[in-house]
Structure formats: C-alpha cells, structure tokens
Write a structure and sequence with these properties.
The chain is 54% helix and 7% strand. It is built from 13 helices and 5 strands. α2 crosses α12, α3 packs across α7 and α3 runs parallel beside α13. The site of tryptophanyl-5'AMP has 25 residues, from β1, α1 and α7.
C-alpha cells in the first residue's frame, strides 16, 4: 500500500486541467492506498486574497473536490491550515533549503514576471512548503500534473538532504505519479500554454453549458490545413489534446482524419468538443451545487479530515524534532 499526498490551491474554481492532471489519478488511488488530499490554502495566500473571500474560496474548492468523487470515507480530505504542524516542518526544512536553488525554480521565475509588485518571501519558499505538505505524511506517491514536476524533484532533494544531514533513513523520496505514464499538461483555449485558474483560458467544472459553448466556440484555431498530412499548429493541437481526454476515441479519429485530408471544419469540431465537455462536466456541476448547500456535511468532512491529518503530521514532527536534537528537560 502506498501513501499518497496531493493538494490543490484554493485560488479559483477547478478546471479541466486540475481534473485530468491530478484529480483523475486521485480517484484511481483512493480506495487502495493511504491517501491524503488537501486544499492548499496557505499556498493560496501568496497572491493576497481578501479576507472576505478566503473562506468562500476554500469552501468552493472543497465542494468541487468532493463533487469529482473524492471520497472522505476512503481518503483523508483536509484543509492545509487546519494542520499547523505543516508550518513547523516548513520552518525546519527552510533551514536546509538554499536561496540559490529556490531562485532557480521555474515557478518562482514565472511569478516574478506575473506579479512583479508582490514578490514575497513565501513565493521563494513555495517549494519548501509543498515538500513539507508531502513528507509530513511520509508519502511516496504524489499524483500531480506536469507543471508540478520540478517541485517534486525539489521535494525529493529536501527529503534526501534531511536524511543525509542527520544520518537517518527517515523520509521516503516521493515521486510525481501518473500510473507509469507521462505527467499530463492540459492546454488552454487561447492557443498556447497550459490551462490555468487565472489565465482566462480555462473551462471550469462549475461552468454552465452556455458558458462552455461560448468559450469553446471562441477557442483559437488557424486558417485550416492546405496540404494533406500537414503538421498541426499549436492551437489546433491543443484542441485535439482536450478532445482526447473528454471525447471517445472514434470522435478524435474522425476529426483527425478530416484534418489529414484537409476537410476539417473547425466549427464542427468545436461544437462536438463543447458537447463532450458538457457531458463530462454537467453531472459534476450539479453535485457541486448540492454539496455547497450542505454545510453540515462539509464541516463534518473537514473536522474528521483535520483530525486524521493531524495525527499523522504530529507524529512526524515529533520524530523530526527528536532527530534534529530537541530533547525534553
Ligand atoms: P494547483 O492548484 O495549481 O493545481 C492543482 C493540480 O492540478 C494540476 N494542474 C494541471 N495538470 C495538467 N494540466 C494543467 N493545465 C494543470 N493545471 C493544474 C497541478 O499539476 C496540480 O496537480 N503547488 C500545487 C498545490 C500543492 C501541492 C502540494 C500539490 C501544494 N502542496 C503537495 C501536491 C502535493 C499547485 O499549485 O497546484
């Protein structure tokens, strides 16, 4: 049995990238493994959400998580800030994380570009907090999308460094995990890059059918192939990537053949894609709304999750303190 940890920031509604990059794998793992799935609401603070919005954001993401099928009876579902032990491990790990390596992290460089007015210290140490989230439960598998690969490499490095520094074999080195397959990157509808929460290029699990149709029909394409077998442009390749995860394989083949013979009509392809996305998201959207209105259920889930997560986290922190050399008087 593996120990599995993964999290999602509470900075916006969940989109198809979150689902196919991470959640789909959680769902496949939750029954047979010791799984911890959490809402990363400390990580969400790096973008300075308003206090009035913080709780609502967490609640929304929690309801969406559950609506996807994450089962709190099978897995431990919790809120990061309900487990303060993680901040102690974060502090301890920060002692052995070097500024140079943190500055070289791709996500930090991207944040510098995106939010030049808010380059706070927590952005720099973001991978350390993420490592703490993972190793505090001594996880060995972490189902995440491609964009988190470097953070997982750093997590392994921090775990290994701790073990070497204190000459112990305490923390396992966890792997980014996708059932032996490449990690997934779901692109956005704007022609380049990945689907993101704040990029304005996403399809959210909570979008209405009308919103989905509108977004898909507006997706960037090109002027169409002119020679048989022509290579796909990036925006069109992206549409096929999304189609590949939501549509059946006959549909994908139908449009791929049409493309290859230069007969494709992007309007038809988009209509089909929108229909298939709606077929996938609509049952989830309905469940999100049901769950959101059941506050009693949500509070029960987080209270039980916090208790289980704290039991595991406090054991680790106690042992880590001992390894480091803290002793009772
Ligand atoms: P976040 O909230 O950005 O994304 C949550 C999960 O969704 C995946 N994902 C994608 N996968 C494929 N294609 C996309 N376009 C796409 N967009 C997002 C992410 O890879 C991720 O698996 N730092 C993390 C949250 C976190 C965490 C952790 C994850 C904090 N601590 C510990 C795992 C373990 C993040 O910002 O994810």
């Amino acid at each position: 049995m593996d120990t599995v940890v993964s999290g999602i920031r509470s900075t916006g509604n969940l989109h198809l990238g979150n689902y196919f990059g991470a959640i789909k794998n959680f769902l496949r793992m939750q029954k047979e493994n010791n799984c911890y799935f959490f809402i990363a609401d400390y990580h969400a603070l790096t973008t300075h959400p308003k206090p009035a919005d913080l709780h609502g954001n967490i609640k929304q993401v929690l309801a969406e998580y559950l609506a996807c099928g994450i089962d709190p009876d099978a897995a431990t579902v919790f809120i990061q800030s309900d487990v303060p032990e993680v901040s102690e491990l974060y502090l301890l790990l920060n002692m052995n994380a070097y500024v140079g390596e943190l500055e070289r992290t791709a996500s930090f460089k991207e944040k510098i570009r995106k939010q030049p007015d808010n380059i706070n210290a927590a952005l720099l140490t973001y991978p350390v907090l993420m490592a703490a989230d993972i190793i505090i439960h001594k996880a060995n598998k972490v189902p995440v999308g491609k964009d988190q690969e470097q953070h997982l490499e750093m997590t392994r490095k921090f775990a290994r460094r701790f073990n070497m520094m204190y000459e112990v074999n305490y923390f396992p080195e966890p792997d980014a995990y996708n059932f032996g397959q490449q990690l997934v990157k779901i692109p956005g509808l704007d022609g380049s890059g990945k689907m993101g929460k704040s990029e304005g290029n996403g399809i959210f699990l909570s979008d209405t059918p009308q919103e989905i149709k509108k977004k898909v029909m507006r997706a960037v394409t090109d002027t169409g192939p002119t020679t048989p077998g022509q290579e796909l442009s990036e925006p069109v390749k992206n549409l096929f990537t999304i189609m590949n995860v939501v549509s059946d394989q006959d549909t994908v083949k139908f449009f791929a053949d049409k493309y290859a013979s230069c007969e494709i009509r992007y309007g038809d392809m988009k209509k089909q894609l929108a229909e298939d996305i709606i077929k996938f998201t609509e049952p989830i959207r309905i469940r999100i709304n049901d769950i959101l209105s059941d506050n009693k259920y949500l509070s029960k889930v987080v209270a039980e999750g916090a208790e289980k997560a704290r039991a595991s986290a406090s054991k680790t922190v106690r042992e880590v303190r001992e390894i480091i050399g803290y002793r009772p008087f």
